[in-house]
Amino acid sequence: LEKMADMLTQLQDAVNQLAQHFCNSVGVLSTADHGADAEAKRSELAALYAQLIARTSKDIDFLLSSLPSAQCSPEVQEENLRRLEDKNHETAEQLSELVRNGEDVLQQIKDSLDTLARHQLESVCPGSGER
Fold first, then answer.
1. What interhelical angle do 2-29 and 36-66 show, nearest 10?
2. What is the separation of C-alpha 53 from the centre of its chain, rounded to a whole number of angstroms?
3. What is the three-class DSSP state of 128?
4. How far apart are CA 116 and CA 109, in angstroms?
5. What angle (nearest 5°) sits at the alpha carbon of residue 129, between those of residues 124 and 130?
């Protein structure tokens, strides 16, 4: 879902950019300057805006083709969701098992540290472990 929102944001940005290119190109082409230099500059800018508009249009086409198909039936969407839920459940079970294993290892480490501390204490102070 996040990917879809990100794609829609990119699409909106591209459409806004395309509109901006159109507005800017109209503004440049309608300038009142006359003369050979102004005409050459307008021609150069017109070519630049044509490239920008074409590139942005291609970006929009790509983004549109990347969106999920509207032809995807509710049954197919439900099946995809069911598969994702199954995978999520499976992954949750694996995570729980890893957590249990980690807790077991942690307890073994604590037990080993307790035993090591007790042995060190007994070696420094013989008879201290007896009560």
1. 160
2. 27
3. coil
4. 10
5. 135
Residues in the chain: 131
- Structure token pair of residue 19: 């509109």
Q: What is the pLDDT of residue 77?
A: 75
Residue-by-residue DSSP string for 35-89: SHHHHHHHHHHHHHHHHHHHHHHHHHHHHHHHSPPTT--HHHHHHHHHHHHHHHH
Which ranges of the chain have pLDDT less than 70?
1-2, 4, 32, 69-72, 127-131
Q: Which amino acid is at 42?
A: R
Cα–Cα distance for residue pair 2/9, rounded to 1 Å: 11
Q: In degrees rounded to 5, what are phi and psi of residue 67?
A: -70, 150
* pLDDT tens digits, one per residue of 17-35: 999 999 888 887 777 577 7
